[in-house]
Design brief:
410 residues, alpha/beta, D-Maltodextrin-Binding Protein, domain 2, 4-stranded antiparallel β-sheet, 3-stranded parallel β-sheet, 16 helices, 9 strands
Length: 410
């Protein structure tokens, strides 16, 4: 009997060891997903040019010893990348609609993708040329704006939150109403595009972000008019530098950027308001203006190489839709509560859907009226002192950013 017990104990111990070894062996790193360089080198588009239109600070660009994605693509393929930025979905749409430029790759948000698709401004993707689509998590496939996965491939996932300076705000905010608080008059920044701006008023009023009721839009407009006297400026990407430099007290912004901002200013904190927030998926598309579709699909496939997707996820600080990146043990953000909030936090989050043309027109008209109505705005311009602070912040930007992983995640 004792002999049998020893045998069983030995078998049990061996099974545990094998189990541990199996788990260790199954753990992935970026090295488990090598890039097939020959695949890119043997492309037929060498010597051509690719025009890419993306948000600012939205791709790994070689800073802090990261991969310079565009340069790596150029080296591998011999295709020249012309890379330019836009500030908002609406700016991007206006540029495409005007015919003022021909782009081959764009990265809009979900509601704008739906609009572009419905207006015939996107080309269908040939998925045979984008085999790395297999790395996209199923939860980011077949979404409402592209149910058949014909026009887009998810690039990042994020949501809007309140960024505030704890030395300038009296208590941690828990509501979007903080952006209406007279105590912070002249130190409040506001989004400078209608969809994002109206969303904050709609959340406070308990409306859907996709309301089609003109009366609700009027109420939201009135709420924004009520806010106007305390707003320092209506801005977009400038929010990043202004808040990072400590030149304003509170602003709405994208939660992924908070982590980078906090690297330069430890007084910054983030709050997810109780009313909920806008959640978004930015996705890669090919506009109908495209002049180099084959190269565009090669570029999209490159962005979805796990090593490249990892570099972008680490650099941008937004959630990645790549399951391959999420399973890599060298991905530092996988357990970050801000980037990947619990389901209990996101249950009140809402996507933007495409609005009917008459509601879009109503929203745009209200927004135009808001921006010119009266003289109650504290200042649409930032003082010279703010710009001085921004200059100092900019000078320190790359040095501090290079140290962020060690300081914030160790």
């Amino acid at each position: 009997m004792n002999y049998m017990k020893k045998i069983l104990s030995l078998v049990f111990a061996l099974s545990i060891i094998l189990s541990i070894c199996s788990v260790s062996a199954s753990a992935k790193t970026s090295e488990d997903y090598p890039i097939d360089e020959e695949y890119y080198q043997n492309n037929p588009y060498r010597g051509t040019t690719l025009n890419v239109y993306n948000w600012g600070e939205y791709i790994s660009d070689g800073a802090e010893d990261s991969i310079d994605v565009n340069k790596e693509f150029e080296k591998l393929t011999g295709i020249k990348v012309n890379y330019t930025n836009f500030d908002s979905n609406e700016d991007m749409y206006a540029k495409l609609k005007s015919g003022g430029a021909n782009y081959d790759v764009i990265i809009p948000s979900e509601y704008m993708i739906d609009r572009l698709k419905n207006e015939g401004m996107l080309l269908k993707l040939d998925m045979n040329n984008i085999p790395n689509f297999k790395y996209i998590d199923d939860k980011y496939k077949g979404l409402f704006f592209d149910p058949n996965n014909e026009y887009s491939i998810a690039y990042t996932v994020g949501y809007v939150a309140l960024i505030y300076n704890k030395t300038m705000v009296e208590e941690a905010p828990d509501s979007w109403e903080a952006l209406w608080d007279e105590r912070y008059a002249g130190n409040i920044l506001m989004f400078n595009n209608p969809r994002d701006g109206f969303a904050l008023a709609q959340l406070i009023l308990g409306q859907s972000l996709n309301s089609t009721d003109p009366d609700e839009w009027k109420l939201a407009y009135d709420k924004l008019l009520e806010q106007k006297p305390v707003v320092r400026a209506y801005v977009m990407d400038e929010i990043f530098n202004i808040m990072e430099s400590g030149a304003a007290a509170i602003a709405p912004y994208y939660v992924g950027d908070f982590l980078t901002m906090k690297d330069n200013n430890d007084d910054l904190e983030v709050a997810i308001p109780k009313e909920g927030a806008n959640i978004f998926v930015d996705a890669i598309c090919i506009p109908s203006t495209c002049q180099n579709k084959g190269a565009a699909e090669l570029y999209i496939n490159f962005l979805n190489e796990p090593q490249i997707a990892l570099a972008n996820a680490e650099y941008i600080y937004y959630a990645t839709p790549s399951w391959a990146v999420r399973e890599m043990e060298d991905y530092s953000l996988v357990d970050n509560e801000f980037i990947y909030p619990d389901d209990s936090v996101t249950e009140k989050f809402e996507y933007f859907y495409t609005l009917p043309p008459e509601i879009n027109t109503l929203m745009s008209n209200y927004w135009g009226d808001l921006k010119i109505d009266g003289d109650s705005n504290v200042s649409v311009y930032i003082g010279l002192g703010v710009f001085g602070a921004l200059g100092l912040a900019s000078a320190a930007y790359y040095y501090i950013k290079k140290m962020r992983r060690e300081k914030y995640y160790d």
